[in-house]
Amino acid sequence: LIIANSNATKVMLEKKFYIPYKKIRVLHNGIDISKCNKKKLINKPSSIFRVGFIGRLDSPKGVHVLIEAMHYLADYNIKLTIAGDGVLKDVLKKKAHGLDNVSFVGRIIDPYFFLNGLDLLVVPSIREPLGNVCLEAGLCKVPVLAANVDGLPEIIKNKVSGELILPSKKVSFETVNMAAPLPEFVVNPITQELELPKQIDPFLLSHKILEMRDDPDTLIEYGEQLHNRVVKYFSIERYYDELYNIYCEVI
Predict the structure, then answer these.
(1) Where are the beta strands (DSSP E) in 65-168?
(2) Tens place of pLDDT for every residue, the chain, 251 residues?
(3) At a CB cut-off of 8 Å and minimum separation 6, what does 215 contact?
């Protein structure tokens, strides 16, 4: 028996590796929801719309797309903070050179402290089996704008608990020898079929960021809905209960 952390991973196992579906069980990752009661509050300057990214600075995360989008937003009071480290750090910093609206803070110890300083989390992944950072954002009631690929829409319900953008552009970016290779395939969550990896259109991403910034009431609603969804469906207690049931099934 194989445990998959998302339905998208199950599709990948079935269609790329020819694992019989009867041998796969889907068990979404769980998160300690008590951490949302320990979050630190930050006074965010109301005049600045703060966008953030948290994650490994590597090829599948699509951070270059977000930086490209910030070029279109240079004349707006929108700031992007990138948290994380990885082999593409120097490449991405070079790409952001000259942009006053982009900053890098490196690896962070407390993601909840960082998230509470944001108005919007962007997850521009090219490949993302599930997306644990979306769960963390949900605990902090931070709205999410994510790529509509792989397992991300299993957390983010479009126009309900966040917004999704379907990747439509050929992947194009500078890389380095130690960077993770692009996946051979990703899962299209609409068709449930494997397809070649794509990236979000940076211009469309910039437009969507502006659109969400200009609708603060909807942002608040997205944050509340995501929080409720994470607490209901992604608690660590639910994870342990379902894992126990799977073990009982195979014993």
Answers:
(1) 78-83, 102-106, 120-123, 144-147, 163-165
(2) 999 999 999 999 999 999 999 999 999 999 999 876 544 455 555 689 999 999 999 999 999 999 999 999 999 999 999 999 999 999 999 999 999 999 999 999 999 999 999 999 999 999 999 999 999 999 999 999 999 999 999 999 999 999 999 999 999 877 666 788 889 999 999 999 999 999 999 999 999 999 999 999 999 999 999 999 999 999 999 999 999 999 998 88
(3) none
**What does the alpha-carbon distance between residue 141 and residue 221 come to, in Å, rounded to a whole number?**
9
Whole-angstrom distance, CA of residue 147 vs CA of residue 127: 9
User: Of the candidates 79, 83, 74, which has an alpha carbon nearest to the alpha carbon of residue 47?
Assistant: 79
User: Which amino acid, one-letter code, is at 59?
Assistant: S
CATH superfamily name and code, 29-233: Glycogen Phosphorylase B; (3.40.50.2000)
Q: Which helix (H) or strand (E) holds 60?
A: none
Domain assignments of the chain as residue spans, ordered by start: 29-233
Compute CA 121 distance to the chain's CA centroid, rounded to the nearest angstrom: 8
For tokens 């994380």, the residue is 84
Query: Rounded distance, CA 205 to CA 122, Å?
Result: 9
Kindly state the tokens that stand for 204.
């469309």
Alpha-carbon 146 to chain mean position:
6
